[in-house]
Specification:
11 helices, two-stranded antiparallel ribbon, elongated, about 5% strand
Length: about 300
């Protein structure tokens, strides 16, 4: 018993932080010190996992999240073409059905992009499972990117479904004149509403709050954005108000991709300025989302 050497505290610390030998080739690695991140750069696996989780969430109920919005949008087309498209009425040199169809497509995309992202954090806060989003090693930017990307995916799925249904509807012809405008304004509109939905999800504390944003903000901005009319038919005051509505530029720019003309202005230059303006607006919304997620406002408190 006398020849035994007692273990000291420094020896225990050294043993706890000793090198870990691999069984294969004998290479050794040391545990990272406390406070130093193990994952550097972008957590691609975590980001992809979050994206797939969000996509699978709305695909499990695709009858409600994809097909139902397509049917609702198609009903809008049927009602308004029957009510306003009689007698060969033309708008911007095309039939009323051809005029209203692009606006309905992108309107359905935007509304469903908002619906998807506005549910992500809110459901976690209400059900008490938001820890499942906050605990994984994901930065605020990665969390925002995964949720917004899944919302845009749903918006694109709804847009393709609605476009296919309208292409098969008698009396509607979808001519692709400016493909870049269709892609750009479709993406900008979907990202814009996905970011707005994420902001609403951060702010809302119950589903009533989310429904209030949908009913009193999103729906009026969508319906009063020139989807069913050109703003030249409005009084000068309401024309000026419409030009402060970002939904107007999304819908008119998207329609420009199919018709080659819009009520934003004559020529291509106003369309390009509208495209750049939407990109700047999305950057500002993304910065606001990031700051709120970083602060933990109404999420971590």
């Amino acid at each position: 018993m006398a020849d035994q050497v007692p273990n000291s505290a420094p020896d225990a610390q050294i043993a706890a932080s000793s090198l870990v030998e691999s069984e294969g080739g004998g290479a050794s690695t040391r545990f990272a010190p406390h406070g130093r991140p193990v994952i550097t750069g972008i957590n691609r696996i975590g980001l992809w996992s979050l994206y797939i989780k969000e996509v699978r969430r709305f695909l499990k109920v695709q009858t409600q999240t994809i097909w139902a919005p397509a049917v609702t949008t198609l009903l809008f087309l049927v009602i308004f073409t029957v009510a306003l498209g009689r007698g060969g009425r033309e708008v911007l040199g095309v039939s009323f059905a051809d005029f209203v169809a692009p606006g309905l497509i992108v309107m359905g995309m935007m509304q469903n992009g908002f619906a998807n992202s506005s549910f992500s954090l809110l459901s976690g806060k209400i059900q008490g499972t938001i820890i499942d989003l906050l605990m994984p090693p994901l930065s605020e930017g990665e969390l925002m990117t995964g949720i917004v990307a899944a919302a845009v995916t749903r918006a694109l799925a709804v847009g393709c479904t609605v476009a296919l249904a309208m292409a098969l509807y008698p009396g509607v012809t979808l001519h692709v004149v400016q493909p870049w405008a269709i892609v750009w304004f479709g993406l900008m509109g979907s990202i814009m509403l996905a970011l707005m939905g994420l902001l609403a999800s951060i702010w809302a504390e119950k589903f009533d709050h989310n429904a209030a944003v949908t009913n009193f903000v999103i729906a009026p901005l969508s319906l009063l954005s020139g989807t069913f009319y050109v703003i030249d038919n409005l009084a000068p005051l309401f024309q000026a108000i419409s030009r402060f509505n970002p939904f107007f530029y999304v819908i008119s720019g998207f329609r420009y991709g199919f018709l080659g003309q819009s009520d934003i202005g004559q020529g291509t230059q106003p369309i390009v300025w509208a495209a750049l303006g939407l990109a700047v607006l999305n950057l500002l919304l993304a910065a606001l989302c990031y700051r709120l997620l970083k602060s933990g406002w109404k999420i971590k408190s």
